[in-house]
């Protein structure tokens, strides 16, 4: 394994940890496993990450950043708030598939971890998503597209619940029918409009 | 530990396995751990369950049975299809809390397991829920309460996605606000009606 510069090494360790957490679960993976797979010693790993938790935090922050960046790009394609929600939701299956390992790690930790720091960074992730959708919904209510009586926070959580549930089924039990997903998205939008 | 009759021993082993799977994760728990905690030898455990997978299957079938029985009782309280969906959804937080360990095991396995038998029984679970909600929606469409253009299967999956996402957040990150949940339920119903 050639010597890498610090940022590349950090990136490599995140990638290796993501793969191992996704494969064996966060709890079952050790920093020893990660160092070995990355071709470095544990002390080198510890120069970049203080603990396994720190690696997890870096992975989740990565998912949050990539997800929000991707969605910001998507909503730039339309000024219509309903169409923006539709575009983000319609891009979800491919986005989740692209970040499949990362979402496995995130959902696996959410479902099984009792580590406060781990759950804390997961909470932060959803808080950011809540703000993103909350703003879309608020814009839509101001524009008269969405019903004003619906708390934007509740609407944001409706979208988050649906997204988590969809990902849990689609990524783990196999592809859901795309036409069915489209019907679900339209139903969610009707609930926000009517 | 007193000697138990076969059905009681089976029940006890399921309870112990549920607790251990919920605490340490399905993958990390061994039949040795389960036997020890139940105060029996492994050969005695194997008289009741051929494998750890078999214990998992029994737990998930238990969750399916209890959930459907509970929902059948709930919907008996109303003839109105929309009200039936509302009652089942409104009872979800307490129901999930009551079966918290079981749902931890189910969602943890869904998020992290790659075992075909394990995922197969999880798939069976959702198939039953799909049928339950599909029938409620079909009845509602026939009664003219729900929009006829919405595929009952898609409506059922919208409810399942929301339920999984809600449980993942509520059980693992802490209680969601009940008023917010009520708003989400009403939004889902508007989407099914409008």
Total helix count of chain A? 9
Largest interface: A-B, 45 and 45 residues
Shape of chain A: elongated
CATH-scheme architecture of the largest domain in chain A = Orthogonal Bundle
Number of strands of chain A: 0
CATH top level of the largest domain in chain A is: Mainly Alpha
Number of domains of chain A: 2
| Percentage of residues in helical conformation of chain A | over 70%
Please give a structural write-up.
The structure is a homodimer of 194-residue chains. By secondary structure, chain A is mainly alpha-helical. Chain A folds into two domains: 1-50, Homeodomain-like (Arc Repressor Mutant, subunit A, Orthogonal Bundle); 52-193, Tetracycline Repressor, domain 2, CATH 1.10.357.10. In chain A, 79% of the residues lie in helices and 0% in strands. Chain A has helices spanning 6-24, 31-38, 42-48, 52-75, 81-98, 100-112, 116-142, 152-173, 178-193. In chain A, helix 1 crosses helix 6 (100-112) and helix 4 runs parallel beside helix 7 (116-142). The first copy, chain A, is elongated. The relative contact order of chain A is 0.11. At the A-B interface, helix 6, helix 7, helix 8 and helix 9 of A face helix 6, helix 7, helix 8 and helix 9 of B.
Task: Write out key terms for the chains shown.
homodimer, 194 residues, Arc Repressor Mutant, subunit A, 2 domains
């Amino acid at each position: 394994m050639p010597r890498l510069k610090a940022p590349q090494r950090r990136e490599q360790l995140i990638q290796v940890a993501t793969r191992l957490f996704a494969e064996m679960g966060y709890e079952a993976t050790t920093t020893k496993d990660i160092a070995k797979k990355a071709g470095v010693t544990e002390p080198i790993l510890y120069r970049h990450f203080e603990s396994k938790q720190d690696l997890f935090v870096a992975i989740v922050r990565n998912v949050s950043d990539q997800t929000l960046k991707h969605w910001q790009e998507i909503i730039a394609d339309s000024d219509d708030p309903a169409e923006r929600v539709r575009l983000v939701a319609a891009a979800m299956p491919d986005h989740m598939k692209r970040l499949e390992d990362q979402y496995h790690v995130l959902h696996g930790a959410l479902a099984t971890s009792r580590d406060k720091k781990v759950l804390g960074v997961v909470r932060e992730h959803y808080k950011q998503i809540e703000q993103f959708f909350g703003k879309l919904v608020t814009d839509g209510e101001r524009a008269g597209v969405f019903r004003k009586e619906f708390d934007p926070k509740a609407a944001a959580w409706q979208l988050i619940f649906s997204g988590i549930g969809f990902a849990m089924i689609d990524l783990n039990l196999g592809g859901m029918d795309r036409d069915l997903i489209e019907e679900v998205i339209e139903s969610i939008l009707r609930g926000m409009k009517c």
